[in-house]
Specification:
Strand order of the largest sheet: 1-2
Order of helices and strands: HHHHEHEHEEH
Helix content: 40-55%
Distance between the termini: 30 Å
Shape: elongated
Number of helices: 7
CATH superfamily of one domain: P-loop containing nucleotide triphosphate hydrolases
CATH architecture of one domain: 3-Layer(aba) Sandwich
CATH class of one domain: Alpha Beta
Strand content: 5-15%
Number of strands: 4
Radius of gyration: 18 Å
Structural class: alpha+beta
Length: 169
């Protein structure tokens, strides 16, 4: 899961946060004592390398930018060897350039690792640019389900209905 607000341990290093992604697959005593296997250490470093942050491995998360934090969160996901990645607004707190870069990393997970990606996005442009399928909800009901090129202005009005007769949202 990749969250909007990263969900990282800010006082720990990027590398340790990535290692945390593998905790579920190891005995409890190992993470408590910091007794990580050489394989786990290498996988964490490889995950940071994949998101372009290998040189930040020892840096505390609180020293990183928002985009770097989100990339650490993506690297943490890689430690879990997921088949499915869920994202809750993973780019909403990022500037446009950083958001595009992070979406590129998420799309890369699908291409390079075969990970199915399901994101909750309110950024229509990002959804159109990166999704192969868009499902639009309004009042808890599916009002659109199709390819990005099928997401017309009329479909958007079903997803985001105007609040009043003037068409204001």
């Amino acid at each position: 899961m990749v969250f909007q607000h990263f969900q990282l341990l800010t006082r720990l290093s990027a590398w340790t946060n990535v290692m945390a992604g593998g905790f579920a697959g190891m005995p409890l005593w190992r993470p408590l004592l910091g007794a990580f296997s050489a394989e786990d250490r290498q996988r964490a470093l490889a995950a940071l390398r994949e998101v372009g942050l290998e040189e930040y491995a020892r840096r505390r998360v609180e020293e990183l930018s928002g985009g770097q934090k989100q990339r650490v969160a993506i690297a943490r996901v890689l430690m879990q060897r997921p088949k499915l990645l869920l994202g809750d607004e993973p780019i909403s707190s990022l500037d446009a350039v950083t958001a595009e870069r992070v979406m590129g990393f998420i799309a890369g997970l699908h291409r390079r690792h075969g990970v199915t990606v399901m994101l909750n996005l309110h950024d229509v442009a990002a959804a159109r640019a990166y999704a192969s399928r868009i499902i639009g909800l309004s009042a808890g009901r599916v009002v659109f389900n199709g390819a990005p090129k099928q997401l017309t202005d009329a479909a958007l009005r079903r997803i985001y209905p105007p609040d009043d007769e003037d068409g204001a949202h």
